Amino acid sequence: MKIVILDGYTENPGDLSWAGFEALGALTVYDRTPEEEIVNRIGDAEIAITNKTPITAATIAACPNLRYIGVLATGYNIVDVKAARAAGVVVTNIPTYGTQAVAQFAIGLLLEICHHIGHHDQAVHAGRWAENADWCFWDYPLIELAGKTMGIIGFGKIGRAVGRIAQALGMRVLAYDSMECEEGRETGEYVSLEELLARSDVISLHCPLFPETRGLIRAETIAKMKDGVILINNSRGPLIVEADVAEALERGKIYYAGVDVVETEPIRGDNPLLGAKNCLITPHISWAPKESRQRLMDIAVDNLRAFVEGHPINIVD
User: Is residue 317 part of a domain?
Assistant: First the structure.
């Protein structure tokens, strides 16, 4: 059985092992695959593994040996699932692997906004503390989170993990989700979206990207927020309308935004958030600690092994 990994570098830049896949077939790993090479590289392989390399209906039609597409991520919009199903090709994804890492990163963005630790470290190394007339200094307002309200939109596993950390910091937690659960009620108070927007000092996005959530944070919903709210998004870039968020940052309606995702990745030079004040942007790395990537690798191998053994799991429907 031939296995082709189309874009393995981001999952494994060299600190993990592909041995689990090698045990299941003849493996070829490409760091990256340009779109014009996708069909050639899959060739007559039965198994294609992808992270962000698109597999379209045309690709599926051009690769008649293909029987399985494994997505090295939770999101699977890069695969034409309908065409795969019609061709009898099984598609799997990784439903849960980075809950703690992503939750930790969301809080990391928030803490950096509250304290500007990186900036003050650079200032010290530049000699500003040594030259200071007082025994301490700070360049930004410093924010204590205890007693403030965290509103979490999307209260699944990651959202609830963020909520638990927020609680540990002394914050009140509000949650909005289309599906409520008892575990969620133990962590936060379910409210309507309108109430969450109105009451929250910090809003953190942890919902999937669906047609109904695309552009969820836009001028209309921003207008319902508190003045000076902090916005965190390390879920999906298109959840926010970037031009509207940039405008709200400029006039101070949103005090600060911390984002790890943008609508088009890698970020384009004309992205309005790049020129906005008080906007912290990181390059989609919430998921990327080694521990998290190892879990992803293990689940991806388990997915393929289960398919080979005739009882596929984590099938995308």
Answer: no
